Each structure stands twice: as C-alpha cells, then as structure tokens.
Amino acid sequence: MRYDLAVQLGDDALILGHRLSEWCGHAPTLEIDLALANIGLDLLGQAQFFLALAGGSEGQGRDADTLAYRRTEDEFRNCLLVEQPNGDFARTIARQFLFSAWQELQFRALAAGSDKAIAEIAEKAVKEVTYHASFAADWVIRLGDGTAESHKRMAEGLDWCWRFTDELFSGAGAALRPEWDARVNAVLAEAGLHTPKPVRGITGGREGRHSEHLGHSLAEMQYLQRAFPDAVW
Amino acid sequence: MRCGEAMSETIEEGLEARIFALLSHVPDPEIPVISLTDLGIVRAVRLGPPPVVVITPTYSGCPASLVISQSIRRALDEAGLSGVEIKTELSPAWTTDWISDAGRRKLRAYGIAPPETAAARLAGKAAAPAFCPQCGSARTAEISRFGSTPCKALWRCLDCAEPFDRFKCI
C-alpha cells in the first residue's frame, strides 16, 4: 500500500528531523550546530514529500501538514530509533549513524522499486542521505578513536541505540541487513569500537506502539496547530 | 489549417525561449549572484495548454524553494504570462552538474568555490581540494561539511587564510 509506506517513510524523516532541530543553538560547536540543523532540514523536506504523497494517495483531503500536526502518537508509524531523546552528542551521532546507514540502503532500493512516485523522492533524497551517513560515520570514528572519554561516550551511545535497530529490518526490510551489518561493522572497526552485544530488539513503532518520548515530542511539535488550528501569519 | 498550425508552433517556440530568457534574470534568493537558469533548476517549458514551467528543488528541505516559486510567479505575471503554470518535479534529481558554466564563473567571482564538474569527477578527482575563489590556491581544507545553506560546505584557504563557501557536489 502506497499510503502505509509513504507515511512510514515520512514519519521516520519528520520525527528525526524534529529531534535534530532540538540541537539548534545547543550543539558543542558552531560547525556541529550547522551540520545537525542542516541534516534536520533535509529530513523535514523529505518528510514533506512523503507525507504529501501519503495524503494524496489516501484521497481524504489530508495534506502533509495535516498528517504532521493533527495525528496522535498511536497514528505515527516511525521506527522507535528516531524518536529516542538526543542524549549527549555521542548518542545523537550513534542514532544518526545507525539510521542514515539504513536509510541510504533503503532509499537505494526504493529508487529502483516499482512505485514510481516513491522512487522519485527516494532518488532525490538518497543524495542527501549519503552525505548524512558519511558525516555520521566520520564522527563515530573521530569519537571512538579519540580520547578515553569520547570513546566511552560513543560506546554508550551505540549501546543505548542498539536495541532499536532490529525494528529497521522487520518484514521485507530483512534483505538490507547483511549490507548494513557490513557497513556498520567496518566503521566500528575503524573507530576501535566493538559491535554491541546482541540484545532482544524492541519493536512496535511501525504498528503505532511508541515509547513515551514520542508523545512529549509531538506535544511540542504540534502545539501551535493544536492551540490555534489553521493559524497563518 | 496547415498554415495556422505552423504559425502557432512558431509562437509557442517563441514562448519557450521567452520564458527561459525571463527566468535568466530571476536571481536565486540565497545566492542572488546567479539566476535560476544558471542554477539549473528550471528544467523545461511544456507548451500545454496550459503552458507549464517545470522546476526542480536543489535539496529536499531547501527553504528557498517557496521563494523561488513566488519569484517565478511574479516574473511570469509581470510579463503578462499569468496563464503559465509552475510545476515541481523531482526526477531526474537535481545535480550540481546542471549549474551552467556562466553560473560557475559568477559563483567564483562572488567568492563561492563552484562544484567540480561531472567530467572532473569521472577523472577520479572526487577528493580533489577546492580552489580558493580569492587567490586560486589549491592548498585548501574543509572546516565544516555543512555551511550557511543546504547546498554549501565551509572551507578555508591555507595560503591566503580566507574562509570560503564551497558548493557541495551532488
């Protein structure tokens, strides 16, 4: 179903884009502030395309903004990884690294897929995501191969995020796992980090069962539209 | 009949050239030194009816996209072409290879290192350094992979010490 897939892709991008926007003005350096805000901006743009497509294919008059601002958390279909709080910079980088590596593979597959409208957005977005993936991998290596403190924090960030990665490969997504494993492991090896030990994965985001964090995030993101529906300026 | 068809075709061909000429004077909102046609985001004029200008975004989330549509609308309206519609298409995805040679020259003169061309990339120079737009030196280094707009990164020159924006190559 185009609607289901488009909503899932749009929600992943929207929620991670929003999380990254929380760093704006708070990042460790100006360059990181620029980077995280720019990655967030790319993701918001992708979310806009996917959610507009979802709304159009649903045919009930909901546009991208309606889907973003007027759904409750149980109607969101993003993976649990993207809704996790930012934590420190290392955890944010861990989340970005694991997610972007997967998103890049997923978009490459979708760009060659049979749904032309989704393929067009993926073909466009994969250029952006490839850049995100390489930025995040660089930082994993820099922190992992840096000081004792940065190494420790990077390892903790990966451990925190690891239990949410199984969900990325549920169902048909399983085909992407071997290539993702190979890419992630190669970067971790270069960073001098161990691949986290296998843990039982936590899933449910794709069915609308989210962690408590999503509700708080939406409360902030949707505040204006909820308080003043259809506000314009 | 035949004569009429031929005539309307000529008028329509004229329309396409006219719209491209018109948009070659509309500046990019974030890098006003180059025009929308220099940037390569005006992809086609379809003659219709109704005639349609096809544009494509540089980056998915580029905040300039809305301003670009509005600028095109205004330029068309002011030229008496209110009937011409604007359509955004994503495929084929925009690439920096579509920035015109004139656009590259204007970027450099403005202090922004243009992206390397597809030919340079194919020659295996993807990792080649940017040339400083101020002094031309190739002794340059990346400061930040992201810059002041989605399409640029921040670099500095190791010879003249000037920081500069570099167009990301995509």
Mean pLDDT of chain B: 86
CATH superfamily of the largest domain in chain B: Fe-S cluster assembly (FSCA)
Multimer state: heterodimer
Q: What is the CATH fold-level name of the largest domain in chain B?
A: GMP Synthetase, Chain A, domain 3
Number of strands of chain A: 0
Reading the helices and strands of chain A in chain order gives: HHHHHHHHHH
Number of helices of chain B: 5
Helix content of chain B: 25-40%
**Distance N terminus to C terminus of chain B?**
48 Å
Which properties best describe this structure?
heterodimer, A: 233 residues, mainly alpha, 0% strand, B: 170 residues, alpha/beta, 2 domains, four-stranded mixed β-sheet, 5 helices, disordered N terminus
Topology:
The complex is a heterodimer of chains A (233) and B (170).
Chain A: H1 2-21, H2 30-58, H3 64-69, H4 80-83, H5 89-111, H6 116-144, H7 148-162, H8 177-191, H9 212-221, H10 223-227
Chain B: H1 2-23, H2 36-39, E1 42-46, E2 52-55, H3 64-78, E3 85-88, H4 101-110, E4 112-113, H5 118-122, E5 140-144, E6 152-157, E7 163-167
Parallel strand pairs in B: 2-3, 4-7
Antiparallel strand pairs in B: 1-2, 5-6, 6-7
Describe the structure in your own words.
- The complex is a heterodimer of chains A (233) and B (170).
- In chain A, 67% of the residues lie in helices and 0% in strands.
- Chain A has 233 residues and is an all-alpha fold.
- Chain A has one domain (2-227): Ferritin (Up-down Bundle), CATH 1.20.1260.
- The N and C termini of chain A lie far apart (36 Å).
- With 170 residues, chain B is α/β, with parallel strands linked by helices.
- Chain B has 2 domains: 2-94, 2-Layer Sandwich (GMP Synthetase, Chain A, domain 3), CATH 3.30.300; 99-167, no CATH class.
- Chain B contains 5 helices and 7 strands; from the N terminus they run H-H-E-E-H-E-H-E-H-E-E-E.
- Chain B has helices at 2-23, 36-39, 64-78, 101-110, 118-122; strands spanning 42-46, 52-55, 85-88, 112-113, 140-144, 152-157, 163-167.
- In chain B, strands 4-7-6-5 form a 4-stranded mixed beta sheet.
- Chain B is elongated.
- The relative contact order of chain B is 0.13.
- The chains are: A mainly alpha (233), B alpha/beta (170).
- At the A-B interface, helix 2 and helix 6 of A face loops of B.
